């Protein structure tokens, strides 16, 4: 399954790069395939490992901030693997070119 998520500590001001950097250390240590975007992070794995990692990110910020907002969007196709790369490759094939990054 793929899960796109973002975790936002409420009350940090405009910049959250310090908190986001802390979360990326957790994501990298989690060992799941992931892609960072300007608005969130997409991770791929089994339900329990994906949700466990998102929970860990949420709880890490909640330990430092009185309020944390976590949003999750899930694309679950059962046992299908490689969706993190495969979904974009399929679109690129239909476009006939690479997507700009």
Topology:
Layout (H helix, E strand, L loop, with lengths): L1 E8 L7 H14 L3 E4 L2 E5 L2 H16 L5 E8 L7 H13 L6
Antiparallel strand pairs: 1-3, 1-4, 2-3
Protein model, in words:
This protein has 101 residues and is α+β, with helices and mostly antiparallel strands. The chain has one domain (2-95): Alpha-Beta Plaits (2-Layer Sandwich). It has three helices and four strands. The chain has helices spanning 17-30, 47-62, 83-95, and strands at residues 2-9, 34-37, 40-44, 68-75. Strands 2-3-1-4 form a four-stranded antiparallel beta sheet, with helices on one face. Strand 2 (34-37) and strand 3 (40-44) form a beta hairpin. Helix 1 (17-30) packs antiparallel against helix 2. The longest helix is centred in the middle third of the chain and has 16 residues, at 47-62. It is globular, with a radius of gyration of 15 Å. The two termini are 23 Å apart. 15% of the residues are buried. The mean pLDDT is 89.
What's the helix-strand series? EHEEHEH
CATH hierarchy class name:
Alpha Beta
The level of helicity is 40-55%
CATH topology name: Alpha-Beta Plaits
Radius of gyration equals: 15 Å
Strand order of the largest sheet: 2-3-1-4
Give the beta-strand count: 4
Low-confidence stretches: none
Q: Major sheet: size, sense and barrel closure?
A: 4 strands, antiparallel
CATH A-level architecture: 2-Layer Sandwich
Mean pLDDT, all residues: 89
Oligomer: single chain
> How many helical stretches?
3
Number of domains: 1
The structure class reads alpha+beta
Q: Report the portion of residues in β strands.
A: 15-25%
Overall 3D shape: globular
Question: How far apart, in Å, are the first and last alpha carbons?
Answer: 23 Å
